[in-house]
Amino acid sequence: MVERRHFLKHMAAVTASSLFSVQLPRICAWAQSGESRPHFFMFVFARGGWDPTMVFEPKVGLDTIDVDPGGDVAELNGIRFLDNPGRPMVRTFFQDFGDRACVINGVNTGTNSHSNGEEIMMTGSAGMNDPDWGTIMISQNNPEDYLIPYMALSGPSFSGTLGNGTASGSGFLDLLVGGGVSNTPSATVEANMDEYISRHYTAHMNRLFAQGKNGSRFSEMEDSLGRWKELKDVKTELGEEFNNLNGLANEGSALATAFERGYALTGSLRARGSWDSHNNNFNAQSPAFENTFTDLHAIVTALASKNATSGSGTLLDQTTVIVMSEFGRTPKLNGSNGKDHWADTSVMAIGGGVLGGRVLGGTDDYQKSLEVDYSTGLVDPSGAGKEIKPINIGAALLEMAGLNPSSFLPSDIQPFNAFRA
Question: I need a labelling partner for 50 at 20 to 30 A (CA). Which of 71, 201, 277, 355 fits?
Fold first, then answer.
């Protein structure tokens, strides 16, 4: 329980903290310099539900599945995909980075709901208030050493019961940089905004006190306000990469810089596009994939161009990029030439810790997930395999971060490690 005198003392301390918080980025970088070699994670989420047959799992020649009529099967660097002249950056990406990427097909989300699918992909479950993979990782890695431990710039995040150790879920990060810090308000407008937020916050906390609601969430709200004030003080020192956060490529470049300088350990970004294609599926999904692969190419190029924070190699060698969507699309077109929600989907892993140049898992001729051999990741026709689910991939990611999945997930969850190097 938090006492009222502690709350009032904290409000005064928050103001005083601005006197030294401008040095926080440097402090964060110095703190990280003593670490062995942090493993960074970047989550890219295509919210709306992509159609895996457009790129990741070509299903050409089947009467049971409608595929993009302008596409042909191609293979580059071990990645078999659907190629289309209207999506040249898909080919370019696999040509340049296919050896660093692994595609996982036939991932069964078990849902056709947008909200449930998003939560399941990020946490392994829905409706359980569980923290997502990025939150778990940072909560176990001294979050106080980072300015913005979990930099959820535009992608989904679920703080669950561990939100106190991250910037996720508070909304303050979006308030600070959601529109790009180059759009700086005038001093008068910003002062008025600050006054309004402080007044609104104080009034809200007073109401909670009056209602006797001063439990664990109270401390989290206090910490969120303090972090927001710190972020405001250091936003001009984040660097020019944070002057334009409009779009996936710019956000990914900024996040790469945040990793490099020790500001963050994990991050979540959104792949823009008309993914929820109940109408004109091919016309909607094609440009969404083209734009996303264009931006992914820029992000991976940025990571590959930066030196590792310690030791040999590049920042790409110590960063794992996970690209996913909340579910897939139906095998057949509907009456509007669109595709509806479908539980089975694909995931792509890129970069550090990933055994690239491979396609794992798969679906049958009706686009239903097939069981795989977890040791190889390949479809197992013997009947001795098991399905790949988001929680199995998440367990593998936690292991990549040096954590024991059973400390956070049910003990019977087997990590799907076949995509790991």
Answer: 355
